[in-house]
Amino acid sequence: MYSDSKHPSDLEDTAKSCVDTPAQPLDAQYDPEYVRKTLRHVDWRLLPLLGLVYSVALIDRTNLGIASTAGMDQDIGIYTGNRYNIASAVYFPSYILLQIPGNIILRILGARTWLTICVIGWGGAQLGMAFVPNWGILCVCRVLLGAFEAGFFPALAYIITTWYKRHEVQKRLAVFYLTSTVIGGFSSILAFAIAKLAGKANLNGWQWIFLILGIITIILGILTWFFVVDFPEKNTFLKPDQTKMILDRVQADRGDSSPDELTRRKLLKHLSDPFLWSYALMFMASTMPAYALGFFITIILNGMGFSEEMSLLLTAPPYVAAAVSCFFFAWIADKTRKRAIFLVIQTFMTMTGLMLTAYTTLQATRYFGLFLVVMGSSGCIPAVLAYNANNVVSHTKRAVSTAVIIAGGGIGGIFATTVYRDEDFPLYLNGIWATMGCQFLMLLLLAINTTVFTHRNRRADRGEIIIEGTPGFLYTI
């Protein structure tokens, strides 16, 4: 169970009473306006800060390409051999391996302490990258960056999904993610401006990029300590009756408003669920193109014939379009209570964009292809998280599945940094077809999951099985 030593006992009692109370029709006992206002209050307290901090995480992990164009290659030879690809890839092993331990520590320390440690830790690693004397030390800093960021994203996805009903969650995940997407999309322009400080204090432009972004991250870590939101039953910003309402809704929706204890037996049971691994592979397929463009979009644009300055400036518009697309698909998915069909549509958008970028010759058409890739892949990331969140029950399974899925995203990052090779510049056809393969895998897994889920839902409707050990629970398809 979560530690309750620092939290009001009445909120813990509320959580326990919600578990003991039989599920009632959703929101039947609450005034709709009261529910709406409370959820809006939660939204504003929960999503903006988390989205802002995660946007900095995305910038910090993918700004290596921007720094390389701002003088790093001349100073430490980042483009010698495969150094750039290796420096990009070494971030991911620690990021992948520490996902599940991170969510276990989250349950022990609580959100405020753990997230603050993560943010200040990777801010320190980013700051250190400003002063690396050689490529080897840069790789060490990248490993530390991955280790500290490992605990952050799965914790955020886990926390957000505990506050809302199943068919309210994708909009929230999308808002959180699109905030980071838009801000991250402008990171190249920000870095371009920062790089103009080259020569000040005897620092090169790439050093100023790491220095300033590292300081910003550390400041956000301090804000995290003061303002981050914890799990519903441990929050201190809502009134007790509002907390009870939040927990009642979750309990009526899926029956897991109160956290259960994570044991070795439960961990192994959750890890043996094949659907958990299918979600992880789907997340890998989504993040692979997102990481590829995060690391290589300025290089790809430069290969299209744009100048270095224009390549940096043209990175932002696709991410703005992706934010609009991402929220639209999240809204319609929550409204229709469907997941797979909209993942299919966005996957086809990604595939179309890849083909336009690879095989058309007009500069404008290839650039439009990048729009489609960013829009499709960015929209699939919160959609896969919501797909998982809708189809699991219990805090322990939610913690384990979220960690494994986001670890799958780290594998997508390794894949992206290794298949987009320097020798394939400027078309990167090998990388593009590897990315296409991931999209075919996504479509295959969606077809399998939809078939199995539909069959099991029909059996549950006939009373032949109980899904996830929760009477009345049906998979979201």
UniProtKB/TrEMBL annotation:
Tree of life domain: Eukaryota
Record has Transmembrane as a keyword: yes
Bilayer disposition of the protein: Multi-pass membrane protein
GO cellular component, one term: membrane
UniProt xrefs under Pfam families: MFS_1 (PF07690)
Keywords: Membrane, Transmembrane, Transmembrane helix, Transport
Protein's cellular compartments: Membrane
Descriptive protein name: Major facilitator superfamily (MFS) profile domain-containing protein
Transmembrane segments: 135-161, 173-194, 206-229, 275-300, 312-333, 340-361, 367-387, 399-420, 432-453
PROSITE patterns recorded: MFS (PS50850)
GO molecular function terms attached to this record: transmembrane transporter activity
Major facilitator superfamily (MFS) profile domain boundaries: 46-462
